[in-house]
Amino acid sequence: MKKINPTKILVLFIFLSLAPFVIEMFIYKGVFARYLRLQPNLIVLFFLALGIAWIAIKKPKVVKLKNATLTFIAFSFLIYILLGTVEYAKYPNFVFSTYHLHYSVLVSITAVFFAWFMLLVLTDLKSTKKNILLNSISAFLLSYYCFVNFSSSLSLIDRNFSYALANPVTDYNQKMEKYWGGVYSFIAFVKQETPEDSSVVLPDINAGGFTGNPGMVRYFLYPRKLVSFESNNIPNADFLIATPGNELGEGNYKFWPEVNIETEWVKYFDVEKKLVAQVSDNYDPNVLGNNGYYALLKLK
Q: CB-based contacts of 135: which residues, under 8 Å, 6+ apart?
């Protein structure tokens, strides 16, 4: 009877742990959870545990396998970035409508290869052979931790890197608007219209998820003094930001503020058309609520 090559069995474990993600890439993300009530991450966890046990018992040669997993990490990540770049350059869902691939699943595939690479490296260290059980458990836990965190890290890289590759000549403002949407255009307008030594009242954070967040806005408007809205009374300040609400696509749709305010002037800002309309009169909440504009108020 032909002897089984332990390294080939380990390769089989690696590809079986990848199988759910490969299937989801061609069908849709979440198909396993929906129809089999099984999370792909649990399959990865199972085969990593099986792999660590197999290595401890059979002691396969893993040098070439380490190099192969490292190659696959680079290859799958490169394909992910290239497809993401094409998607940003064309239009949302371009890759799927053209190639019928959910390319975002490549994040998980790359993370699986990375987890196996870490497992192979850790189990091949000379120090791990002194206390096999303890070090095998440590290698297993660390490799799975790398899998989970590597996935989220790659997603963050793609969100910025692919867009930068697809739009190499865009300036800072264009990149920020792509990332944050029209609300960034308004904040850039506020920065342009207000002196650096002025004070600005921010909206109620329940209405303004972006403009009502002092930590977020301070990055763009520093050194202006930011005043948070904490009661029904408008604080003393030079300017006030009015928001149509629902700035980041979720949360409270209600515009703010809902009351009439005495002002020297109001500049209404249309984020879609990048148009500004100045009114030398008091602030009227109906204008904001009916049109979905942002507004910068010069307080009396």
A: 122, 123, 125, 127, 128, 129
Query: Which residue in 112, 132, 134, 113 sits closest to 124, CA to CA?
Result: 132
Look up the pTM and report it: 0.58
42-61 residue pLDDT tens: 899 999 999 988 988 888 88
Per-residue pLDDT tens for 168-190? 667 777 777 777 777 888 899 99
Which helix (H) or strand (E) element contains residue 268? strand 263-270
Q: Kindly tell me the sign of the dihedral angle through the C-alpha atoms of 144, 147, 148, 153.
A: positive
Strand order across the beta sheet in which 263-270 lies: 225-227, 199-201, 239-242, 294-299, 263-270, 275-279
- Structural domain boundaries of the chain? 6-166, 177-299
Extract the tokens encoding 262: 């005495």
Q: In this structure, are residues 259 and 282 in contact, taking their beta carbons and an 8 Å threshold?
A: no
